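Hey, I'm writing a tutorial for new members on how sequence and structure tokens pair up, and I'd like a real worked example in the thread rather than a made-up one. If someone can provide the structure for the chain below, I'll link this post from the tutorial.
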Amino acid sequence: MILWTAMTMSRQTISSTGAWIPESIEVSRGDAVYMAHSYLTKVPPSAILPFIKALTAPGDTVLDPFAGSGTTGVAALMLGRNAVLYDISVLGRHIGANYANLIRAEHLREAAHVAMESAGHRAGPVYSVRCEQCGGEAELSRSVWSVVLACPNCRADVVFYESLAQAGWAKSAMTCAACGTRIVARGGAPRRRGARPGHGVLSLFSEAPRSDSRTSAARGIR
């Protein structure tokens, strides 16, 4: 979750319009529009919607002279407004223009399928992994790089990502699986540098979905 807070000066400036603006807006950064691409200082459309809704009416035009990747335009279109966007970034203009290029969902899926099939034939099985549960072939969905620390008591390997997950994502609750010693993430010494799975400073964990199950496989760095 991310908290977007309206500045006091901004509230005072628009107070004369009679529009009600919330002092804070809490939105998620996990929606499909926000996760569609990466871009510096990107703001979720859901954080922009309340301002456009309060200060404009359907059919009005919203101007954003520093539009970035165009999420202001997305929010405006969602509320039935028009939008005029400007930005110096070529990448930002490209993303923003295609956000507003509305097409039928089935056409997008068909074009994406053709593009992925073509790329797959050219690149080969670069994302192919072996499922540790059944031994079958699976496709890599994402990778997580994690530091491997040494337990200060028993010197066992402690994979930071796994330990943090087991602790409910609370660093203060991280412990060594072998002896139960509390693990301090900040300032912890790396085990050693190497290439073997589980023994390098960095380990790669892949989640490879097969039908209705997923498996996490530890892979060393080469």
